[in-house]
Inverse folding.
């Protein structure tokens, strides 16, 4: 079995070129990749092992298991990472002078062990190199995300059929999850960081939307157990509430992030006002967000619109407010850049970002829209196409 099929060789080469540009910027002449998302990014598949990327020369895939890959050219079968240095010498590779390790993606003990492979080499932050490369997507990656958006929208079209009167928010979510899996959802959202536990998504309604969460989500929710305090909490859905649905968009190793809102019966005018404010923010940012624009300026523009509508007390939460309105998305749900006031990032063509200006109205629920976008020279192109208005269940 070939580790990389022939039809993906060109795609992987594009990623290697990008990584090497960033390696040179950070002063690294080699990069050692070990985390699951970055193994997938550098090989378009997952295995147990490591990817060694020299700034000059061919990358090598050091595979521990499964040991079913061809060992020709770029695949080397090993039993433990300490064998990497010996294998590099055997294959005629120079010893690296400065190696990038995934400081932000691996444990301290894992990084320490890998640093021991090249004890004389200087150390660079490989996570930074990988994040910068992954921020800008290739056409192949964007095509995968467009596929995700189509599948996710198809599931959302069937949301109303999942609802029954007097069901709980958890029962509603389970029915949506069933539709997601039948549509082909992988069932797992890869996320970055230790504050991002997540299942197949979030359905939050009514008062539960105002419950703070320890996670780095825009919305909270109590959850159904202290071990996972976020999202649906098992309360019965009632008339006069909104139901915000932010469910899994992972169908092929990449993912899209999309949120829409439904209502049960009539809801107060303030909910519609805030929801329309969210849509107005998206329309403004879609025009504004072009290559070369500071990411922080997107956040500032959103805040100007919110303050003009006198809705600041509800924006990005009520009892607890998030300090960002969007994030990069791709292999992981929460990639760079983060759309917040203190961001130093600059938009580039083919970045993919999810913008989610949301509001929490006490006793009513959450409102607002989230779309995943591609950055183009003329602004943002949505790849999560589905009606944005509040729909009634």
């Amino acid at each position: 079995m070939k580790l990389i099929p022939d039809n993906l060789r060109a795609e992987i080469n594009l990623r290697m070129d990008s990584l090497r540009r960033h390696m040179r910027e950070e002063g690294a002449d080699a990069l050692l990749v070990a985390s699951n998302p970055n193994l997938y990014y550098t090989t378009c598949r997952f295995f147990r092992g490591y990817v060694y990327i020299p700034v000059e020369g061919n990358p090598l895939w050091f595979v521990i298991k499964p040991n079913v890959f061809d060992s020709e050219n770029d695949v080397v079968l090993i039993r433990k990472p300490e064998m990497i240095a010996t294998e590099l010498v055997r294959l005629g590779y120079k010893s690296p002078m400065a190696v990038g390790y995934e400081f932000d993606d691996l444990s301290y003990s894992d990084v320490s062990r890998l640093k021991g492979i090249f004890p004389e080499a200087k150390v660079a932050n490989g996570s930074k190199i990988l994040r910068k490369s992954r921020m800008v997507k290739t056409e192949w990656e964007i095509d995968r995300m467009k596929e995700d958006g189509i599948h996710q929208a198809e599931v959302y079209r069937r949301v109303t059929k999942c609802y029954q009167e007097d069901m709980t928010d958890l029962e509603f979510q389970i029915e949506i999850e069933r539709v997601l899996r039948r549509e082909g959802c992988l069932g797992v959202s890869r996320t970055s960081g230790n504050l991002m536990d997540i299942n197949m998504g979030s359905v939050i309604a009514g008062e539960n939307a105002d419950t703070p969460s320890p996670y780095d989500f825009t919305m909270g929710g109590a959850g159904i157990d202290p071990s996972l305090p976020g999202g649906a909490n098992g309360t019965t859905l009632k008339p006069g509430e909104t139901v915000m649905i932010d469910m899994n968009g992972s169908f092929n190793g990449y993912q899209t992030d999309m949120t829409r809102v439904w209502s049960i019966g009539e809801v107060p005018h303030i909910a519609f006002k805030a929801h329309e404010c969210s849509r107005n923010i998206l329309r403004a940012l879609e025009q504004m967000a072009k290559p070369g624009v500071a990411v922080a300026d997107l956040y500032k523009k959103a805040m100007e619109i919110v303050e003009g509508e006198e809705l600041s007390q509800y924006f990005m939460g009520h009892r607890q407010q998030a300090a960002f309105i969007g994030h990069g998305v791709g292999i992981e749900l929460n990639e760079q850049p983060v759309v917040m006031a203190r961001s130093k990032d600059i938009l580039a063509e083919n970045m993919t970002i999810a913008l989610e200006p949301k509001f929490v109205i006490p006793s009513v629920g959450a409102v607002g829209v989230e779309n995943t976008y591609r950055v183009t020279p003329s602004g943002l192109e949505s790849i999560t196409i589905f009606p944005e208005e509040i729909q009634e269940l």
User: Anything to note?
Assistant: The first strand starts at residue 30 and ends at 33. The mean pLDDT is 94. The first helix runs from residue 9 to 26. Residues 23 and 366 are 42 Å apart (CA to CA).
